[in-house]
UniProtKB/TrEMBL annotation:
One of its GO terms (biological process) is signal transduction. PROSITE patterns: CHEW. It comes from Geomonas paludis. Residues 9-153 form the CheW-like domain. It holds the Pfam family CheW. GO terms for cellular component: cytosol. This is Chemotaxis protein CheW.
Amino acid sequence: MAVETITETTQYLTFKLEDELFALDIGKVREVLDFTSITKVPQTPDYMRGVINLRGSVVPVVDLRLKFGMAMAEQTVNTCVIIVEVELEGERVVMGAMADAVQEVMDLEPDQIEPPPRIGTKLNTDFIKGMGKHNEQFIIILDIDKVFTSGELELVQELEGAAA
């Protein structure tokens, strides 16, 4: 969904990674959990932190800082796991996204959202839905369905199958 297709007010869950503010469409968010112990799965990429038990279901957890090339952070009382639903070839995949802290749920009007920056041809910014502006601060609005490649999401499904 391009910025041009955002024609109505949308609610977003905002969260911090380092000093940057990110947002996810609230419709993709199931819940926010306090950080819990994560079971590491061998031979997975660094950003794939492992799996958690969510009411009897195995849910893979990704560290968004590492996925976006940021430094790993120490866990704090604010560290949380945002449980999201991602579309993969018509199927819904539930996964956890680690964030430094959740901020708030906010409404953004279409005129508060600009297209993602054109950074160059070598950098893939398809996963950025747009740049929100709120109180003179930029908010990077993520398209969670495009943050992960289909190969990465297949790995997530394999993790779920192996741990079940």
